[in-house]
Amino acid sequence: MSINTQNSKIIFGLKVKQLRAEKDLSSAALAAAADLSVSYLNEIEKGKKKPRSEKIQKLAAVLGCSYEELTSPELSGNLAAVGELLHSNFLNELPLDLFGIELNKVVEIIASSPIQVSAFISTLVELSRTFAFKEENFYFHALRAYQELHYNYFENLEEKIDTFVERFNIPTKRPVPTSLLRQLLMDQYGYSIIEVDFSNKPALKAMRSVFKPEQKKLFINKELNEQQKALQLGKEIAYNYLKLKERINTSSFLRVDNFKTVLHNYFAGYFAVGLLVNQTSMIKDLRAFFQQETWDGNFLTQLLDKYEVSPEVLFQRFNVLPSIFNIKKLFFLRMVNKEATNDYHIDKEMHLNRKHQPHANQLKEHYCRRWLSIKQLAALSNQAQVKKQPVVGIQRSKYLGTNDEYLCFTIARPSYFPHTQQVSVTIGLLVDEELKQIIQFLEDSSIPRIMVGVTCERCAKVDCQERVVEPIALLKKSEKKAIQEAIENLK
Question: Residue-wise over 28-37: b if at least 16 C-beta within 10 A, else e?
Answer without folding.
Answer: eebbeebebe
